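Purpose: get a first structural picture of the assembly so the mutagenesis plan has something to point at.
Setup: two entries, given in the order below. No constraints added.
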Amino acid sequence: MAEIQILGVSKAYGGVPALDNVSLTLNDGSFTSIFGPPGAGKSVLLRLLLGLETVDAGQILIDGVDVTRALPSERNLGMVFQNLALFPQLTAYENIAFPLRRRNVDQTEIDRRIETLAGILNIGHILSKKPAALSGGERQRVAIGRALVRDAGAYLMDEPIAALDARLRDDMRLELKRLQSELGKTFVYVTHDCDEAMAVADQLAILNEGRFEQVGRPEDVYGDPAMLAVAELVGAPRISVLPAFGDNDGMKFALGRLAGAKVKGECLMALRPEAVQLKPGGKGPCSALVTDIERLGAFSIVTAGRDGTQVRAITDGDSPLRLGAEVEITVDPDGMLLFDAATGARHA
Amino acid sequence: MTGLILRTLAVAFFAALALLPISWMASMAFKPAAEWTSAAGTLTFLPKDPTLNNFRYVFTGNSPDQMVGLDRTVWRPLYASLLTAISGTLIAVICGTAAAYAVSRQRIHESIGLSLLQLRIFPPLAVMIPVMIMWSFLGMIDTWWGLALIYGIVTLPFSYWLMKAYFDELPREIEEAAIVEGCTPFEAFRQITLPIVASAVASTALFIFILNWSDYLIALLLTRKEWTTIPVYMNALATAASGQLYGAKAALGLLAAVPPIILGISIQRFLVRGLTFGALKQ
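Result (structure tokens, whole complex):
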């Protein structure tokens, strides 16, 4: 059980800042996703938490105790590395037992804990095999087992399921979520996959270019992004961002005019695809041609545009729209997010 | 189909080309003195009258074939070769592995790799003459440790570069996982890393042993009599009565191939295995 506080931590490599004065609190028993594009500094943050690297500035507290300069072994954190980092010469059993053997736990206790874990992770049948003989998903579970076998204060995971195939990934993230709520432990989950980050977390932290852009509940971050960068990073299919001008007639932009201008003057208008409706026929104040249709079964992603300006919309799976068809664009006013053109800050 | 035949023929041709001198040496080792050269008749590939006298000659110094006995048998050079080659290999492998690990993990002093190469970028003689002078000042000429030391030094670049490549390939996360679980960096190296790279160390050691074992030039320059090695001894195998003792040299050549072969076979199971074999996601 542990609460982790990151206070004003900075880290630079060769003068290039990887983390710039970041602060974040991970509550005891919370499941926090740290999400950001590759190179945002996610892995660096985990390495600093683990004590594998030292901070240039700032503090790290675990349960109120300053561990900024503590050795990795003194922090009592479990870790699942991005590349899993299993010990190739040891069997799955010995891999999982390693943290306990290091702490001189007696054999009956090791057996007991591994048996329990093997049940939860469904790896009982592969414990005698070495990592080379395991499939990707099995290695994954063994690596998670090696982290969980010890009663650590918090468990850190660096893109632990990124290399699995899509179906296995979906299963694993559900399993992780279930595991975390069963154990009631603090989990920190780093990923560059937005869906994954949203699906598992009860706290979502958006890390971009070495800074936290926004921290909050996943649904709040999605629905109420503070910065244009956050709106662009979170959500798939991607949000459409268009330069627009607001006046008494509504929001004018390259494809026409949309009703309801909450902001006057120039701004950037971001439209979530689910807020955009496309109707056949081009009679309204805002129209475009369908340029692309991706049919994904349950829904389709339709791109409509003209002269290089494009809007993405989610439509029914059996949408009657055809490529090249003229469509009228309407937008649910709640789904229209407006940002300052210069700073990218959200207009209230 | 034609392609396969042509390829097989090409492989057979080059294999034969490579094996020709070795098979000639093997055949020569069993030839009596009269068949060594064409002086006493025609030269044949296989011995007409196979004999073990050549082996007897180098081991005992006497042979029914030869009127004059050898003043030195092969035993002492064999001992010298084994001692210096093994010691030199140990020096190179231990120092090279340690240096490669440190540089690979700390990512500092990487230029050491290039500076190690300086011994190798000059013609060997250009380097060894000054070394000979230094060694003679230091009183290390014709000592086993003087020769072992220089063997360790000249093969150090190989062990450094080979091991560096292995360590670079081995993700540091494997050690970090051990460190997070409570190991000190040294324990992580000894308990986790070293067993993983054991196969790499074995193949590096074999390679370096063969280099040291087959050295002629260094031993020629740095030894006089006590610690001459097999290649130097082999070259000196000649008597006033018979001239060059080709058969004895060939027999010795065959014998000299035995230690690397034994070593190679005994560590074979390490040589073929992959390095990390499944520690990571593919």
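The domain at 4-233 of chain A is CATH 3.40.50.300 (Rossmann fold).
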